[in-house]
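Title: Comparing notes on inverse folding

I've been comparing how different people in this forum approach sequence design from structure. To keep things fair, I'm posting one structure and asking everyone to reply with a full sequence. Here's the target:
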């Protein structure tokens, strides 16, 4: 998080001098104090203090209900390399709206368990960790919610620019909304209540709100004037490569000014990609928890798990109990993904061929589950948890405005075979 959102007060220089005022980005103070009816007790912080008892929004609260932004930042920094890779892999490998959009989509994922919702949920949990951001139905009370969702909007706009022919596909909304009944099929023309596009009562819909140009804004990577769709896609690909895979293309390597030593390749620039796929039944998520992956021994102190030096990444399982209680027909399985390349490279393993990676992962890939009060959660309490490893060959492109060519994802059951929560020989790899 930028420091500006963690200062309780800020100094403002005005025509009458400098004044110290409450920072509107730090928190939101409730008026009046919410009750347990407003924030149900089961949507609590897991630290023995219901969220309804907090007078203001909090982030990673301690036992006294005080925000701990330093710890939240440590979690974010520890997960930074994984989120960096997930962003690039999602935008370069997933052209279909369904699996791109949500964690419950199960038709034709092809082993690609990542989605924009998967990354979205991770930020909510890592920032909130028992505070309001980790309780997604109530998270928008925290001002940082709006900064987070501005970036989600940016990622969505980038994906749209790269895949201009991919649109919202009809899907059944099993949970329903305040205005749509459960079981409603939603498509590109479904009204986006309560957002009106004019004074006559016309509502926005995905078809009419598809482009940011409609609303008069864009993002630095999307210069969408004076170009056609093909040129825009090419330009955005160049921007994404520069941000997330700067040493991937032969062209960029030749343009690098670093001639003093061998170019340091990013995790996205290798000739193979490795991931841990995580899936769990939605019935397991009656309260939010983390799945932490480690390369090597798991630290003995659970309070250090989320920012341990050998942490590979943290998968966030959000609380679906509020929705599940309203509608038991939610998608049965939730999907997520944690990349492994960055951890393998950090451990000194630059040879990412299966013959080298599989023995390392088999002996060293471990995981633990953790509640939002930092206490361990026994894997045996989540029998639906299934973790498995997938890998694919990658052919880096010769041009900076093209994405790499990715081979199919292959399942390597031997990595997680026999481990508690690992994919069994008789389990479907999905």
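Reply #1:
Here's my take.
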């Amino acid at each position: 998080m930028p420091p500006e959102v963690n200062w309780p007060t800020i100094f403002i220089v005005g025509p009458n001098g400098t004044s110290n005022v409450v920072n509107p980005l730090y928190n939101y103070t409730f008026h009046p104090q919410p009750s347990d009816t407003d924030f149900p007790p089961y949507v609590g912080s897991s630290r023995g203090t219901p969220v309804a008892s907090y007078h203001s929004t909090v982030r990673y609260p301690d036992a006294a209900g005080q925000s701990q932004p330093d710890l939240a930042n440590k979690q974010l920094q520890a997960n930074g390399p994984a989120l960096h890779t997930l962003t690039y892999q999602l935008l370069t490998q997933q052209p279909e709206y369904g699996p791109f959009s949500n964690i419950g989509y199960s038709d034709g994922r092809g082993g690609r368990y990542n989605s924009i919702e998967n990354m979205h949920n991770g930020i909510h949990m890592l920032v909130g960790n028992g505070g309001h951001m980790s309780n997604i139905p109530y998270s928008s009370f925290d001002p940082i919610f709006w900064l987070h969702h501005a970036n989600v909007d940016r990622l969505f706009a980038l994906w749209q620019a790269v895949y201009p022919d991919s649109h919202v596909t009809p899907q059944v909304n099993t949970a329903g909304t305040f205005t749509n009944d459960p079981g409603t099929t939603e498509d590109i023309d479904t009204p986006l209540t309560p957002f009106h596009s004019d004074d006559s009562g016309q509502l926005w819909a995905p078809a009419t709100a598809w482009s940011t140009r409609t609303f008069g804004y864009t993002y630095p990577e999307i210069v969408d004037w004076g170009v056609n769709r093909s040129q825009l896609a090419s330009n955005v690909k160049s921007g994404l490569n520069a941000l997330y895979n700067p040493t991937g293309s032969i062209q960029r390597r030749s343009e690098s000014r670093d001639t003093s030593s061998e170019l340091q390749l990013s995790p996205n620039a290798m000739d193979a990609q490795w991931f841990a796929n995580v899936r769990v039944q939605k019935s397991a998520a009656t309260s939010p928890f983390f799945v932490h992956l480690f390369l090597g021994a798991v630290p003995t102190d659970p309070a250090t798990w989320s920012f341990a030096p050998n942490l590979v990444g943290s998968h966030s399982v959000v609380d679906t109990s509020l929705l599940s209680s309203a509608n038991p027909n939610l998608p049965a399985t939730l999907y997520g993904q944690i990349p492994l390349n960055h951890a393998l490279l950090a451990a000194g393993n630059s040879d990412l061929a299966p013959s080298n990676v599989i023995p390392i992962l088999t002996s060293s890939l471990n995981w633990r589950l953790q509640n939002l009060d930092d206490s361990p959660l026994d894997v045996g309490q989540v029998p639906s948890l299934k973790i498995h490893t997938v890998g694919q060959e990658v052919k880096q492109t010769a041009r900076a405005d093209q994405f790499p060519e990715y081979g199919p994802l292959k399942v390597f059951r031997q990595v997680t075979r026999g481990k508690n929560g690992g994919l069994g020989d008789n389990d479907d790899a999905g």
